[in-house]
Amino acid sequence: MALDMEQLRKMFYEECRENLEVLEDVLLNLDPSQIDEESINTIFRAAHSIKGGAATFNLLDISEFTHHVEAYLDLVRNGERTLTAETIDLLLKSGDCITSMLESYESDSEVNKSLLAEVVEALHQLLGVAPTESESNTTEPSQAEPISDQPSDWSVSFIPHQEIFFSGNDPLRILRELKELDLNSKITAQLTKLPDIDDIEAELCYISWHATLSGDISEEAIREIFEWVEDECDLLVEQASSDNQIDHIDEAVDAESTTSQTLTTVDNHPPAKSNKVAKAESSVSSIRVDIDKVDSLINLVGELVITQSMLTEIGHDFTIDKLEKLKAGLDQLLQNSKDLQENVLNIRMLPMSFAFSRFPRLVRDLSGRLEKQVDLQIQGEQTELDKTVLERIVDPLVHLVRNGIDHGIESPAQRLESGKPEMGVIELNAYHQGGSIVIEISDDGAGLNCDKLWNKAVEKGVLESDVRREEYSEKQIMNLIFAPGFSTAEEVSDISGRGVGMDVVRRNIEELGGHIEVDSKLGEGSRFTISLPLTLAILDGQLVKVAGEVYVIPLLTIVESIQIDSNCIKIASGGIELYRLRDENIPILRLQEELEMGRSGSLDGRILCFVEAAGNRVGLLIDELLDQQQVVIKSLESNYSKVTGISGATILGDGSVSLILDIQGLITGFLSRAPDSTHKGLAA
Predict the structure, then answer these.
(1) Which end of the chain has the least Cβ crowding within 10 Å, N or C?
(2) Secondary structure letter of residue 34 according to DSSP
């Protein structure tokens, strides 16, 4: 059966990214003054795997570039070079270059040529070699120049042990790496140990190879290629003179033809554009699932089949005496369905480490640019979240961490003056709370200055100039940072100060059905708390009835529900109805009127469902509280059109369609129309 090379290439992309993550993670945790041998070996192996895999799929620009990195790491490993903070930065940039080249194959995007040229030149300087002609002309990486300056011709005999495939090693990859040292090398397959066809076992290797290479190649460079299989082959490397060289054919075996003993020419060019895959199709769209989760899913499917068979049997010649068995079977079917739903959703759950893993590099680079000292502390990395939510929460988290370093953490001198240690702290924490996940981003920096926030809000027109400061609580003033265009930065830079970011953060979080809160103390730091649903596919909801229709309120947004006491109702200026609840006046939102379903009448004896989003709380006026249940979310926009105040729809057990309320949208629209100046600015 022919191999699906496109699928194998996608697997390589995924494995390459994993190796890049290993390389970056180890480099970020390296202390140049205390570097252990195992760390160097780890990043060397990661680079070696990237190089070998890229060569296997003819991605020679990646392979040749990584060879530079590998050559330098080999010098470090042998004690001929030492790692410094500067060279660690260079190796991190090398990982960025490999990522850029990888993305160019996946999505046909442009390689960052300026960064590539900068890193290649720096690597050449470290290795003490001059760039090749192709590198000078195109700024693209080329084959690394050998470190040795002794030109030699070499004869290489590579005799794999028959069981080499069992270890996962591929002779083809090794031969392609060997050919990288000399593109004009001759490689010949030796078939002398090939048995009769009746004795051939497809899992064993019967072929050996002989190669001749010439040019500035050291013996160490040749042996390095075979170091991972040195215990699984017989290898002879010796200098060859011109009079005893034999003719060779420029052929090797590809991944499929190894078992069929068919020789094909090794292609020394990168794959054509047609081999590239679109970003919807890249390895990023796939997830790895723990085998235990798959086994559990298979077991549940088996239980479901058994239940279905039982119900089918009951259905044959059904009589009334089988009613109890039918009820029991339906109960079992319900339980199987719930278990299956839970397990399927669990497959999509990924640990927060997938999002948190990028922040050590971000903090390191940004703190260096701003000349600040920042210690990143991460907790809750194994807390799981739906893959879709996880992917969409990354950008908001990046904004918050960048702001924490830029606006929150002070310079070392300022921290010393205020009695703090020179090094500031950024903390990331994730944990489950009820049916949601909570992510906290905190710092021990300067905190939010409410006086400064107030003045900026008035200056930028977020608040009207005639509003009174005493009408706002400290919490409400802090929430002004989420207003569009609001920024306290004195200077505009590529990091912050353009008035975009925090409003986008809140909007993106609310689009996921979550909300964000800020808490800060001047001089001590700030904390941003994000609450998100665990998944976007299913929602824990409260069913309510309004004007004879059933709606769903996300349970995460509900604070409490009460029966209205007419003595607690107050009318504010502009005719806004307020309800006095434990020393707090909360606006009443008549849901029936907000949804344009007619007048809702008197408040006496009705029910208020208090909901909260983005720090703003209102009481929804409803007719009746119904059940709480999980509902499957269906997109209203893709099936109909976008409706203000509605986030989606669901199908209830009786087959009827119920709309899911967009609480944040309802509150924003309500407060923006409120004539009372108390609410001006908060709706932003």
Answers:
(1) N
(2) B
> Residue 55: is it exposed, middle or buried by C-beta count within 10 angstroms (0-12/13-18/19+)?
buried
Residues of the chain short of pLDDT 70, as ranges, are 1-5, 129-152, 167-168, 240-279, 281-286, 434-435, 485, 487-501, 614-615, 674-684
pLDDT digits (tens, 9 = 90+) for 58-96: 788 888 888 888 888 888 888 888 888 888 888 988 888
Q: How far apart are CA 478 and CA 69, in angstroms?
A: 48
Name, in order, each residue with C-beta under 8 angstroms of 410's C-beta and a sequence gap of 6 or more: 372, 418, 420, 424, 445, 446
Query: Are the C-beta atoms of residues 623 and 606 closer than 8 Å to each other?
Result: yes
| DSSP assignment of 56-113 | HTT-HHHHHHHHHHHHHHHHHHTTSS---HHHHHHHHHHHHHHHHHHHHHHH-PPP-H
What is the C-alpha separation between 493 and 370, in angstroms, rounded?
11
As a whole number of angstroms, the distance between CA 425 and CA 410 comes to 10
Instruction: For residues 366 and 293, give the distance between their C-alpha atoms in angstroms, rounded to a whole number.
Output: 39
Position 282 scores a pLDDT of 35
- pLDDT, tens digit (0-9, with 9 covering 90-100), for 210-267: 888 887 788 878 888 887 787 788 888 887 644 433 333 233 333 333 333 322 223 3
Digit-coded pLDDT (tens) for 275-327: 333 337 333 456 777 788 888 888 888 888 888 888 888 888 788 888 888 88
Model confidence pTM above 0.70: no
User: What distance in Å separates the CA atoms of residue 237 and residue 158, rounded to the nearest whole number?
Assistant: 9
- Contact indicator for 524, 580 with CB cutoff of 8 Å: no
Q: How far apart (Å, rounded) are the C-alpha atoms in residues 677 and 669?
A: 15
Instruction: Give the Cα separation of 12 and 102 in Å (integer).
Output: 10
Q: Are 676 and 572 in contact (CB under 8 A)?
A: yes
Q: Is 287 helix (H, G, I), strand (E, B) or coil?
A: coil
Q: What is the DSSP string of 585-631?
A: EEEEEEHHHHTTS------TT-EEEEEEETTEEEEEEESEEEEEEEE
Q: How far apart are CA 305 and CA 300, in angstroms?
A: 9
**Eight-state DSSP code of residue 648:** E
Instruction: Spell out the alpha helix ranges (H) of 279-379.
Output: 291-315, 323-347, 353-356, 359-369
Report the alpha-carbon distance of residue 377 to residue 382 in Å, rounded. Answer: 14
Burial of 535 (0-12, 13-18, 19+ CB in 10 A): buried
CA distance 684 to 669: 10
